[in-house]
Amino acid sequence: MTLPSDAASAAALRPPDPGAPSAPTSAASPGTPGGLERGVLGTGDIVFFVVAAAAPLTVMAGVAPFAISFGGIGAPVAYLATGVVLALFAVGFTTMTAHIRNAGAFYAYVTRGLGRAAGLGAALLAVLSYNAIQIGMFGAFGFFAHTTAEDLLGLDLPWPVWALLGVAVVWFLGFRSIDLGAKVLGALLIAETGILLVLAVAVLVKGGAHGLSLSSFAPEHVFSGGMGGVLGLSFAAFIGFEATAIYREEARQPQRTVPRATYAAIVFLGLFYTFVTWMIVQAFGDTGAVATATADPAGMFFTAMTDYVGGWATDVQRVLIVTSLLAALLAFHNTITRYGYALATEQAAPAVLGRVHPRHGSPWIGGIVQSVVAAVAVGEAALIGADPYNQFFLWANSPGVVGILVLQALAGLAVFAFFRRNRAAAASAGVFRTVVAPLAATVLLCGATALVVWRLDLFTGAGPEVNWPLVAIVPVVFLTGVGIALRLRARRPEVYARLGTTEVDAG
């Protein structure tokens, strides 16, 4: 999840080698102290983690008005189109799930499809990207917690205090059983989506400002000149859905649960974003929506909530934006620690990151490391006087968003390459699932990445002197991972041979 940049926006939100079969190595059996907690997550639990990472309330209140301002009333279609592209990606992604036994998500897919060197490059890029998004998000959490507490309770604490409190809460929930985390995320997610549905239904029942209109879906509005930038924003709004595969070891019947959760997350986000954005257009009317989004983008949802539901709902919405960010932080924290666990299991990362708590079944050392890094970053941002929203949050998030889109494109290509070498599996799955969908998704995701890079100023509010170095981080990190893998192949071939082979389903 990332928000577009605007100095006023933060303040206004205030109201194996290719083809080689996997070989089991060191994964622990269910119930043993060496592995993650087994069989505790169902499809709904995983969907909660994934959708919570997208932070729907924060994305809608903070991004949808900008999408309307840039792209006009056709903005709802951008979210629908993005959902279609990602569903196409999911076709190949979930088809390959049956051949993946590793909990490393993108790392495992890229390794099996494009080779171990590319796989380790993808792993390093994933760790960097998820950390950048999660750690930067503490800036947004600190900012909104500070302003909300000050305005509603009269409690004036500096943003770093709130951010560090968030680090502690996220660490604690990540340290405890994954099942507890799923329950917390489920409650927070229901609350944040619930308040948006209250607004949307109120607008629908009252018929909007001038009666309901389908003009948002008319071709002349869908294909307007500003929709390119809107598509970039909409792809960023889905960040995190691919993490379904991260929870393979903890899922019940993973070969069924992971694909179901992937499709469910994409379908929900695509339809939910489209419906809510269409409703906010109706709240102000086809002509008034663009004017309002341009004049007061971050206050747009609050104004609509007050007008259609009441002031009490606006206050609730402000509180739920803070909890929305907390839910996203926890979801990304869990993703990061499980990447560390997968890499440590294969000796591609320090072994300590693979230690699992004997009682809670969580990678607790990895959680401590990630939380300490986040706390240090918050402290450094505070010391240099960085703006918590417009600099710490937005600048840190941007390379993470680009990195995840690159990883999605690489995973799509990896699916195609994997099935090209495994003809029997490809024949069983069919041409559409193994060739057409993966290739089409790869091309479209490359286009989406280009759109985000092209309009990175929408995310950072900065010029080329900031944006290009942020983008350059992505290829540098990926190539660094490739270089490390090649060095392992030359100096520690036994570790290199183990990359991407751990079977979490073994035992």
UniProtKB/TrEMBL annotation:
InterPro entries found in the cross-reference section: AA-permease/SLC12A_dom, APC_superfamily
Q: Name one Pfam family in it.
A: AA_permease
Name the domain of life: Bacteria
Every copy of the Amino acid permease/ SLC12A domain together lies at 46-494
Keywords (alphabetical) are: Membrane, Transmembrane, Transmembrane helix
Major location category of this protein? membrane
Instruction: Give the membrane topology.
Output: Multi-pass membrane protein
Segments traversing the membrane: 46-71, 77-96, 117-145, 157-175, 187-209, 221-241, 261-281, 316-332, 364-386, 392-419, 431-454, 466-488
Where does it localize? Answer: Membrane
Q: Where is this region: Disordered?
A: 1-34
Task: Kindly state a single biological-process term from the GO annotations of this entry.
Answer: transmembrane transport
Q: Which GO terms describe its cellular component?
A: membrane
Signal peptide start and end residues: none
Low complexity bias locations? 22-31
Tell me which PANTHER family the record gives. Answer: AMINO ACID PERMEASE, AMINO ACID TRANSPORTER-RELATED
The molecule here is called: APC family permease
Q: Which organism is it from?
A: Kitasatospora xanthocidica
Name the lineage. Answer: Bacteria, Bacillati, Actinomycetota, Actinomycetes, Kitasatosporales
